[in-house]
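Notes from the pairing session

We agreed to fold both candidates in a single pass and log them together. This is the raw record for the first candidate, unedited. Please don't reformat it; downstream parsing expects exactly this layout.

Candidate A
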Amino acid sequence: MKPPARKSWLLLHVISSVGWLGVTVANLVLALSAFTAPHLYQAMALLGDRVVLPLALTALVTGLVLSLGTKWGLVKHKWVLAKFVVTVVAVAATTFSLRGTLHDAAAGVQGAGVSALSASCVSLALYTFATVISVFKPWGRTRWA
């Protein structure tokens, strides 16, 4: 991949990843606040549908393009592979679990608020881990390098 294209894909990847992390922090704040103001679950559901999922998919696609189009490769370095697996798991969890939980909380389903808070904490831990390994690039190369 030529430098201008790589930088464009990298910029889109960083923007979507940081956005995903930021919305997750916002959802955590909303989940904590919603225990005393349950209408905030509706905002969380809206963020889940309209912001989190598009950002998650964009981060996944741009990360895949970058890994396949640059020297890092998808399976050459352990940190890239780990980040890809974490992202796939997070996108699947967002698609098939988080959004449903947020809709249940917005509808007032018993216990869904605790689930929404737990999901926000797990999401934040996953995205923070992905960010840390992106910066420090630990563990070296894989056997497929």
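Candidate B (folded immediately after A)
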Amino acid sequence: MIKKSVGDKVFDVSNLIFLGIMSIVTIFPIYYVVVVSFTDPIEYLQKSMVLFPENWSLASYEYLLSSGAFVQSLGVSTFLTVVGTACSLVITSSFAYALSRKKFKGRKFILLLVLFTILFNPGIIPNYLLVKELGLINSLWSVILVSLSNGWFVILMKGFYDSIPDTLVEAATIDGCNDLTAWIKIILPLSLPSIAAFGLFFAVQYWNQYFNALLYLNESSKWPIQVLLQNMLIDASSSSLGDVDPLLQPPPSETLKMAAVVIAIVPILMIYPFLQKHFAKGVMIGSIKE
């Protein structure tokens, strides 16, 4: 065992103190949001700051979930996440697989076009004009289609497909499979770690849709949870929630905001543990060559 010098011990202690402080700074805002959301409204009004409430309450959550606008925004975000993630995975994985096939004519030119989209973005106005010409303004599909794929994700997934031996596809071809059948029955089952990792990326992207939804969706009934949450954070009252059960007493606006933030982050936190075992493997596969 190597004996540490005094300087090494001082460095280790300083490092632990620094990391401890950074952990507290990082975790405390999340802790405070959760605590305030569960604080009894009367207790919150009586105290300037609540670190550990004496009386826990679900009043803010009951009030939010009784709002038709809030529940509808959750439904919109769920639709965007489920449908958008599925469409993005199909488009990205199939496109990346096509670019990984050496017999695909013109793949180098198309790959250059993909790289070009990573370096240069047309901007907001051309995108908006395109969506408008397609007649998708105020349609949920406008939010999905503008985020359907990503050049960087295509490149990463192509790297994963490049690591799969061509002999597998050749063997499937000999057995009578075409390219589509080989991709569905052989390649996709081998791609589950990569699919899980990129699926999580796309799910987070669609669940957190804010700017595109604000840009393309005019009706408040089609707003996802992030847009409604932004309106709640700006508005000091609960008027952005629309019609609420009149029998419920409105909690303080701050507890409502904190409860809305908790509801907005919980779905992704619930999905991540199921994909965690595939996450690191899916991201690293294809990033290096043996």
